[in-house]
Amino acid sequence: MFQRACYQSASFIRLYLLFYDRRAEFCRSGAAMAESTDVDQLLQAFERFAVHGATKAAGKEMNGKNWAKLCRDCKVIDGKNVTCTDVDIVFTKVKAKSSRVITYEEFEKALEELASKRFKGQSKEEALQSMHKLIEGKGPTNVGITKVAKGGALDRLTDTAKYTGSHKERFDETGKGKGKSGREELVENTGYVAAYKNAGTYDEKTKAK
After folding, report:
1. Which of 21, 104, 118, 199 could bond to 192 as cystine, CB 3.0-4.6 Å?
2. In whole angstroms, how far apart are CA 114 and each of 31, 110, 122, 123, 147?
3. What distance lies between CA 131 and its chain's CA centroid?
4. What domains does the chain contain, in order, with CATH numbers?
5. Tens digit of each residue's pLDDT (9 = 90 or more) over 133-178
6. What phi and psi, each to the nearest 5 degrees, are found at residue 62?
């Protein structure tokens, strides 16, 4: 009985250890997948900003202008802990001496430089994670681009139905321009003055007599 109990106990311990190993492996795998996803999103954000305003860019390198835009759009610059000057200094620090752009690896270094400054009070690892969360999956915003204003004076200037005088004659009822006929007064060489309204009725009057 004692031997049987020991055997069962040993079997239970082996099963428990096997389960524990599998669980630990699953947790490590899940953490690795999460980390991989975060890296992919960070790279995606880098590529989106890298090609902003440059149609021929491949997204492998980022210039100083787009780096500054990334820091503004993603709230890396808070005007308090991190300023535009800080961003420019870090860009110059991580890039190659003769280069005007940074690679993705240099981009990561730049984030490390700014992380502890942006998130004071956090550990180095926590600050870097917080920095990544600001940027992951983001892209350039269109803030600052001038949009066409509507209403008020602009409507009055562009609504052809409200035109008067000679300007009104340049457009038809749909608002489409008439072209040359709307810009020039075309004269018909009929032999009659412009105000005469009975043009073409002479033959009819002669026949009537």
Report:
1. 199
2. 25, 6, 13, 13, 34
3. 20
4. 2-135 (1.10.238.10), 160-208 (no CATH)
5. 999 999 999 755 445 555 555 555 556 666 666 666 666 666 666 6
6. -125, 130
